[in-house]
Write a structure and sequence with these properties.
- By secondary structure, the chain is an alpha/beta fold.
- The protein has 3 domains: 182 residues, Beta-Lactamase, CATH 3.30.450; 177 residues, 3-Layer(aba) Sandwich (Rossmann fold), CATH 3.40.50.300; 134 residues, Orthogonal Bundle (Helicase, Ruva Protein, domain 3), CATH 1.10.8.60.
- Helix 1 packs antiparallel against helix 2.
- The chain is elongated, with a radius of gyration of 34 Å.
- It starts with a strand and ends in a 6-residue tail after the last helix.
């Protein structure tokens, strides 16, 4: 057994072409590969080849936990390493790594079985038996980063030249890892700040109440009645509806009209992230849980403790994520990715989907027990084509919104509103909002938005229901005009049957009679 000297590393002057090639490949990896995991994989593979060894690995030192954690092995880099559910960790006072940490110098061992410092629990794989090694400290001016291993020389023994060469490489590798960790810390801080800003914006700028939802149609009145019954409870709500109908708007209305309105409201789209990212986003992770997890991170459920979590497109969740979500709902506790302890959370869960979850359950794609947990109080949002009387009100709302934002005075002309009412709106309220924005952009400083400012698809609807071209007035007048027309047409279709007319229009019989009186409509 031989031990490295405390003096700085010195490489023998007789460097071979193989040594120079090793320096070149390691330098290329450090400067040319941004991903830390990929960079270390390339470096370790080149060390293995350059030293003619069976293995190479890196273990980082976790000062807070007082332990070493293997983050990369050459076997993993080649795809040959055995998959582990948990990363290999061991206390920083054990093994050769513990000795190197204490002495701050390298160790070279010809036969580990004869060295009392060797920690037998440190072998990385069941089929890999460590026989000999070099273990170098990874140090910078700031800190002790970890250790770098070359293991099992295939011919002969590790030489002093091998030790000096690995020590020289270790200095460069340590700086590269430290820079990557600092960059990761900055990214983590930026991500945390962005998340906090998102929460603040959602709380301060998006405080909706029931009156903030635009709609006066019978379908929306029924929706308001349901919302008034559920806002003051903690009942889970499943919001169903087509894309663009305003599911998140309804979720915010429920939260900000309820007793937890001063608590956080956080939202996540389950279909926008991969399973690992979604798991980390919802439940958080611990430091070292995976490559790049440089710090502990709270998930949305912890951040929303006492408030509301809104999960959009919940039907996109994988079966594994459904199980984890079910545990949170059943027991009120979660475990971060990589963590060993459960944490209690108290949140109200609101979910949304544009899928038929009952069909998903029948097809085996959605857990039945989770379905009944979130389907306690279902709310179905009507598509815009089923509440056309709300279109003038919504158009006016968006026109005022964008007029104030862009300082443009354009108003919707009657022919433009007529085309809006006749269009089917497959994208629902979101499509209407985007159309108003587009039209106001094209209109510029014009005082009126005419049909020439509208999209071709709006100007050429399949089933026109024209309003009177001579009718002028406010949006309220136009809404009343449309209402009168619908009542007259429905009365004609039912041959004057007021009860059937009221049913088709979603009115009570007395409500229809009141409108007939108001508009002086004579019906049998």
């Amino acid at each position: 057994m031989a031990r490295g000297k405390k003096s700085g590393p010195k490489v023998d002057s007789l460097l071979t072409k193989k040594d120079l090639a090793l320096f070149y490949e390691v330098s290329n990896a450090i400067h040319g590969i941004r991903d830390l995991d990929e960079m270390l994989g390339v470096i370790l593979e080149n060390i293995q080849k350059g030293f003619n060894s069976e293995g190479a690995s890196i273990a980082l030192h976790d000062t807070d936990q007082g332990e070493f954690r293997f983050i990369r092995t050459v076997e993993e880099a080649k795809g040959k390493g055995r998959a582990h559910k948990k990363q290999l960790r061991f206390p920083d006072h054990l093994g050769i790594a513990g000795w190197v940490f204490k002495e701050k110098r390298s160790a070279v061992i010809k036969d580990v079985s004869k060295d009392e410092r060797y920690f037998k629990g440190g072998d990385l794989w069941g089929d890999f038996i460590t026989q000999s090694m070099i273990c170098c400290p990874l140090m910078t001016q700031r800190a002790f980063i970890g250790v770098l291993y070359a293991m099992n020389k295939q011919e002969g023994h590790f030489s002093s030249k091998n030790v000096s060469l690995l020590e020289t490489l270790s200095g460069t590798i340590a700086i590269a890892i430290e820079n990557a960790k600092l960059y990761g810390d900055l990214q983590q801080q930026a991500s945390s700040l962005e998340q906090e800003n998102r929460l603040l914006r959602s709380e301060v700028q998006s405080r909706f109440n029931l009156q903030g939802i635009v709609g006066a149609s019978p379908a929306m009145q029924r929706l308001f009645t349901l919302l008034e019954k559920v806002v003051d409870t903690g009942t889970p709500v499943l919001i169903q509806g087509e894309t663009g109908t305003g599911k998140e708007l309804i979720a915010r209305a429920i939260h900000y009209s309820g007793p937890a309105k001063d608590k956080p409201f956080v939202a996540e789209n389950c279909g926008a992230l991969s399973e690992p990212l979604l798991e980390s986003e919802l439940f958080g992770h611990t430091k070292g849980a995976f490559t790049g997890a440089m710090e502990d991170k709270k998930g949305l459920f912890e951040l929303a403790d006492g408030g509301t979590v809104f999960l959009d497109e919940v039907g996109e969740m994988s079966p594994a994520m459904q199980v984890r979500l079910l545990r949170v709902l059943q027991e009120g506790q979660l475990r971060p990715v990589g963590g060993s302890r459960y944490r209690k959370v108290d949140v109200r869960l609101l979910t949304a989907t544009n899928r038929n979850l009952e069909d998903e359950v029948k097809q085996g794609r959605f857990r039945e027990d989770l379905f009944y947990r979130i389907h306690v109080f279902p709310i179905i949002l009507p598509p815009l084509r089923e509440r056309t009387e709300d279109i003038p009100l919504l158009a006016d709302h968006f026109q005022k919104k964008f007029a104030g934002k862009f300082k443009r005075p354009a108003l919707l002309s009657n022919p433009a509103i007529d085309l809006f009412i006749r269009y089917d709106w497959p994208g629902n309220v979101r499509e209407l909002e985007n159309e108003i924005l587009r039209a106001m952009t094209l209109a510029g400083d014009a005082k009126k938005i005419t049909k020439e400012h509208l999209s071709e698809k709006i100007r050429a609807p399949a089933n026109p229901i024209p309003l009177s071209e001579n009718k002028e007035g406010s949006l309220q007048n136009l809404t009343e005009q449309l209402e009168q027309r619908l009542i007259l047409e429905t009365l004609n279709q039912t041959k004057g049957n007021r009860s059937e007319t009221a049913r088709r229009l979603g009115l009570s019989r007395q409500g229809l009679i009141n409108k007939l009186t108001r508009y002086n409509i004579q019906g049998t």
